[in-house]
Amino acid sequence: MASKLFASRYRLIRLIHGSGQSEVWVARDLDSENDTLVVIKILLGNSDLILREFFIRETEALTQIKHAGIVKLFDWGFDNVEKKYWISLEYLEGVTLEERIKKSNGLKDSGVQLIIDVIDAVAAAHAKGIIHRDLKPSNIMCEDTGDIKVLDFGICKIKTLLQQGTTVKGFGTPPYSAPEQIGQKDVDFRADIYSLGVIFFYMLTGEQPIITSVFEQVQANASIPEEYKKIIINMVQYEKEDRYPSVLHAKREIQKVYKKELKYKSTYYVKTTQNLCNGMVSLGLIDFNTESEAKMWLDNAFNDSLISIEQGRDSVNWVLYTHQYRINAVMDKDGRSLRLKSIHYTLSADMAKNKELSFECNNCWISIPGRAIVPKDSNIKLLLEEAENWRKQQDIKRNKELEHKRILAQWENVLKLQRKALLEKDFSLSYDSWDISQDHSKLEVMLVDEKEISNLYNEQPLLIDSSNGKKISVGSFAGLEGKKLSIALAREVNIDEIKEFGEISLDNRQVSSALKRQEDAIRAVRYGDSSNPKLLEIIDNPNVNNESKEVINVTEYIQNDLDEAKKEAIKATLRSDIYLIQGPPGTGKTKVISEIIVQLLKNDPSTKILLTSQSNAAVDNALEAVSKITGDLTLLRIGRKEKIVDRLINYQLDGTLNSWIQKTKNKSDSYLEDLYDLNRIDINILAEYKTILRQCFSKYDELYELDNELSKIKYRLFEEKNEEYINFELCCTLEKKIHEMDKEKDSYIQDLINDINKIMKFLRLPSNRMTYYNLEEIKSNLSVLEKEMERKLINLNHLEQVELIRQEWLSRLGKGREFEAICASEAQVVASTCLGVSNIPGVWSSEYDWVIVDEAGRATPPEILVPLVRGKRILLVGDHKQLPPVVDIDISQEERERLELPEGVLERSLFEDIFHKSNDEIKSILNIQYRMHTGIGRLVSQVFYDGSIENAEFTNSLDHSLKSWREKSVVWVSTSNSEERYEKSIGRSKQNQLEARIISSYCEQIEKELKLSNQKMSLGIISGYAEQKNLLEQLINSKDRNKWNNLTIDIDNIDAFQGQEREVVMYSVVRSNKRRDIGFLKDFRRLNVAFSRARKLLLVIGDHEMVLEANTYNDANPFAEVIRHIEKIDTDNCVLEVLPK
Fold this sequence. Notes:
Blueprint: E1 5-6, E2 10-18, E3 22-29, E4 36-43, H1 49-64, E5 73-79, E6 84-90, E7 94-96, H2 97-104, H3 111-127, E8 130-131, E9 140-143, E10 148-150, E11 157-158, H4 179-182, H5 190-205, H6 214-220, H7 226-235, H8 247-265, E12 267-271, H9 274-282, H10 291-304, E13 307-311, E14 317-322, E15 325-331, E16 338-345, H11 348-356, E17 359-361, E18 364-368, H12 380-425, E19 428-436, E20 442-447, E21 461-465, E22 471-481, E23 484-489, E24 502-506, H13 509-526, H14 535-540, H15 564-573, E25 578-582, H16 589-603, E26 609-613, H17 616-629, E27 635-637, H18 653-721, H19 728-763, H20 775-797, H21 799-812, H22 817-825, E28 829-833, H23 841-845, E29 848-854, H24 861-868, E30 871-878, H25 893-898, H26 910-917, E31 923-925, E32 928-929, H27 934-944, E33 950-951, E34 970-974, E35 984-986, E36 989-991, H28 993-1013, E37 1017-1023, H29 1026-1036, E38 1047-1053, H30 1054-1057, E39 1062-1068, H31 1084-1091, E40 1094-1102, H32 1104-1108, H33 1118-1129, E41 1134-1138
Parallel strand pairs: 12-16, 12-18, 25-30, 25-31, 26-28, 26-29, 27-28, 29-30, 32-33, 34-40, 34-41, 37-38, 37-39, 39-40
Antiparallel strand pairs: 1-2, 2-3, 3-4, 4-6, 5-6, 7-9, 8-11, 9-10, 13-14, 13-17, 14-15, 15-16, 19-20, 19-24, 20-23, 21-22, 21-24, 22-23, 35-36
Helix pairs in contact: 3-5, 3-8, 5-7, 7-8, 12-13, 13-24, 15-16, 16-17, 18-19, 18-20, 18-21, 18-22, 19-20, 27-31, 27-33, 28-29
């Protein structure tokens, strides 16, 4: 039943427990506002009257009780499809009392308070006339918060709602069930007292109770404190009359011992002063200003209520709180007591706040005169140290909470700025005509006026007027030349709907929706509403309690070519709740991700995994890698069709949904055919069995008359035998008559039983369901069969109606978002971008066993939180030494200060933050690269990774075979000697024409050489500036296949190339100026990405002298490190070529 929709609203996630009577599932309530996590209890064998009785009793019980210690009931009902009763309960985090006892081998220290809490909950049920009847450690939940919850009122006995006919006397769980319960005798509240006594014994000793001799077991145990043993013995008496009359009597006795025990564990002394006595008189607490009266009041006040204490203005002064009074104290010169100086009345609201911020002392306090000698064993100093340590811990906790609030507020402020920028970017453009490009990929729109629009950028989604008066999503911005605006058409656009003239505007819906998802994710983290409620704590301190309870051991790797670093990372991930893998360029992080996913599903096919990344390309790469190493997984790719590679078309939602719809229709057809076949047989013989049933009723009437007559004759025989003179002849005749009538009665009964069994078999009722001890039970059984026969007839009459409903349901199948959710819930791996995961409600609301985020270093904190809030365990894979997160907004210094956004906070990923906080147990670095030639790999390792990345052996053979740079894999072509080397500013961007001409010339040179050798090669041209990219595209025209037969050329910025590779990469530095300003090029991370895209040859074109001496202010200069490496460290593979003037 896993991943199934139950009762048309509950998405079943995980089976917790199953028995002959019921199944208990963790589920999502799709009808609730936030798809609340709940527990569903489904009663099996619905035709069984006893199980129906369980359902009635549990729901009636739970609706009557409102107590913090009893599990909440949300809803209940009967599912007409599954034919099963169900109950929806609150979902609890924690362990059962049984698990806690076993883990600690008893609960000697905490057991007493726990049993008091359990008794409080049971007392609340008893107050409503409800008996639990099945109290045991496995039916008591210990939540992570420290609270307890009593579960499973399924076999409780409700005094005011006892059902007739069916009982549950025999149910319960030995050895916790009372003797009268096991003996199927009448049960009252004292049965629960017995169960609580056995539980208390188990908690204090850790010794499993013995079914047949709990009482003797308790008596023989020497480890239980004598006073508690007496209480337990009273609770587990064999005769219920010998037990406590109520659970509250038992609680009272336990509390007496417990309080006395606490009191005598520690004793603290306080000394009275004259000033204190004066204050008590003025407050009306005592009549006379004497130490004896003050002592009497203090002893009562200090030991009848909980005392709270906190440090005053220094280590000598302290403040005590009791009732409504604040008492100022100072450490006495004896060092063993507190001297009470003054007392003050405090308002209730202030007192509550004071107590919240102070340390509670549940101990014995003794007041003594000011000159009295304090015993040497007084440990007031230990108390004060404990209070001070508690205060420090509270300060740390409060500071952490403030820090959490500050971090969340920063993220929220960034989103507010993005939303503000979104509103400012909105515009509207009028057009008077449009046409389709020759390749039908673009819509070419002629604007009314020629305009320059600064906030339009490639791939920005646009809206256009439609013929029906509405705006439709048409595609994304692809270019603007004069009045001609080019739009890359979306796949699903019907161009016939586009209005001939009208307006174009930005489609901000997608961006606005993305911001809303991020705001929701932050809110979920703030209020602990994520699948892992401790997510914020994990982010803050990932090293605490990280080892998972569900450790997965790897016995065999699916991929045979994994190096040791990858294997160690995989094994460590599978034993952790959160793990981070840093994957420098070319180290094969995608291979690691795919292996982890397959290992998870190999261990447990029901595992649900959410695979995400900041970019569609990374998601596609990872999902494709998974699909290649195993073909039997259920994979689903969520996202816009135009953003997903065609190779994954079979995993897209449309295809998966259509497949699911067809399977569902086939199942429905098959089920209906079986139902028709079954009922065609039944309808032909139903009349025959109705006749048999009518005959049974006639036989019963005859039997009833016979039984009455027999009773009269037996009574007459009884009277005759009691006469003074017995008529033996008459008695003999009567006895003979009775014998004949008994035989006739037995024959009637046997005939009736045979007929009843025939009818039961026809109705498919269990053979052990009915008993035949007397005529009343036979009559009752006949009535039950009559009702079942009527129900059977109704079902047959409803078949046509069922078919009509089915056809209506089939016509709606797949047409609502809920069907997408159902389809998604059945996938083992759901893949999407971080923000795309929330596009489908069912995906967003589902809970995942694992959330895996690739390229985690590129996602902003709010972006990455969108998937993280849905996962119980987390794997973050990325590299904070490559491209950082991008927040596409300009923030003034004034706004930064107002919103408390420090410099660099927007470019710091959550991955980097957690990585630096983590110890080596929960993070690892992949340290062997397989992409680049040894020379390129060595450069990247030395400059960007402190030499920690090794080269795979074969990388030395990655030869580019180009004659111009033979035997070199890294070449810097310097323009330092040229007078034309300087950059040109165009708007906010830069351009370098000399570098562009050199690159164009090299492309032509390589094309000629490849043509002669009949080879093919991929070439990437990278620049950090949009205007340089445009210039290079104009000069090279990379899409001209007539010009470039052997070279495949891609020209783009650094961001577009992350995650990609080319055989040859040319990097245009662009910056060359007399100010020695390189702007954002000083970022090591961007240069790392640019240089590590090349597999065989890296060509850097630019002014090496200028960048070598660049002004990077307080930051290191990455170019200086690169040039030093080329000139001095690896001259075998690297060379600096300075072009002549």
